[in-house]
Design a protein that fits this description.
- By secondary structure, the protein is of the alpha/beta class.
- The strands form 3 sheets. A 6-stranded mixed sheet has the order 6-7-8-3-9-10, with helices on both faces.
- α2 packs across α3.
- It is globular.
Length: about 300
């Protein structure tokens, strides 16, 4: 089964990852006030089904994502992980019940930060990292900044976001000259520019080495805890991020299970999900291996065009 994905090619000037303000609107330099208390559902799905090209991607999906939690979406290639994020955004038609931030999906899109799948920026891209972050605030405007209170407020907000993702030492450099992990931190900062309540990340750890994956996952967990942002992230390999996540949504065979990693990534649960014997092995270092699923033997590491 194949989910819709975006292009992984880097644009010369990256677009904002979250909806920018209107061109004439006032800049809000603060974080959007939370309307959901910790433990209440930021996302509720009941009997959710999606069809692409006349083909069912998944069906009868039930899940809850509590506010203020870090949830990862796992599963084999082609099961529609990216499609699930687009459904949360209100961009993918679905049947069943889906409420995001207390309203039908799409009704509060302005309170959602979104980082789609993307490749690394080419070394020829000269835009500064801080300007990439600024696009999350003023991406609807063109031309040179106009001096005045609005520009000072934007500058202060960019500096705040750069500090949040711990990118002060390199944010003034061209983004094409930065490492993959450094680039990803700035893209996440861009998605946080409008103070979202919900942050959706589509494979932000793809193409990063294991050390960078763990560092970015730790950053995301800190943002989730200290900023009160609910995070849902698509990933392939759970091992580098296992210490940082609260919940798992595992998609396979057109269905889904959700819960804590200890509840979901178990032999009996995945065997039932796949309809065949699957064995979960835990190494002495705590890493997991899933053996017997009907896909390539590497655990969440192979890549295809559709996810």
């Amino acid at each position: 089964m194949k989910g819709a994905t975006g292009s992984s090619q880097a644009a010369e000037v990256p677009p904002p990852s979250s909806p920018p303000p209107d061109a004439g609107s006032r800049v809000d330099t603060g974080v959007v006030e939370a309307t959901l208390t910790a433990g209440t559902p930021a996302i509720v799905a009941r009997g959710l089904s999606a069809v692409l090209g006349g083909r069912a991607i998944w069906s009868d999906v039930d899940l809850d994502v509590p506010a203020g939690t870090f949830t990862v979406v796992l599963g084999p290639n082609g099961v529609g992980k990216s499609t699930l994020l687009k459904a949360f955004l209100g961009l993918q038609p679905v049947s069943g019940e889906l409420r995001v931030l207390g309203l039908p999906a799409g009704a509060k899109r302005g309170l959602i930060g979104y980082v789609p799948q993307r490749g690394s920026f080419d070394v020829s891209v000269r835009i500064r990292g801080s300007d990439v972050v600024r696009l999350g605030i003023n991406g609807s405007r063109w031309g040179l900044p106009v001096p005045g209170p609005r520009n000072r407020a934007e500058h202060a907000r960019v500096a705040e976001l750069v500090r949040l993702v711990e990118a002060e030492s390199y944010a003034s450099r061209p983004i094409g000259r930065l490492s993959g992990g450094e680039q990803q931190r700035l893209i996440i900062a861009q998605a946080l520019a409008r103070g979202p309540q919900l942050l959706l990340l589509d494979e932000p750890l793809d193409s990063l080495d294991l050390s960078s994956q763990g560092a970015v996952a730790a950053l995301i967990q800190r943002i989730c805890r200290h900023e009160g942002v609910t995070v849902v992230m698509v990933a392939h390999d759970v091992n580098p991020i296992l210490p940082y996540i609260d919940r798992v949504v595992y998609l396979a065979a057109g269905a889904a299970v959700s819960g804590s990693p200890q509840e979901v990534i178990k032999s009996e649960i995945l065997s039932s999900l796949y309809g065949t014997k699957v064995e979960v092995l835990r190494a002495s270092d705590g890493s997991l291996a899933v053996v017997g699923q009907p896909e390539a033997p590497a655990y969440h590491t192979d890549r295809h065009e559709h996810r």
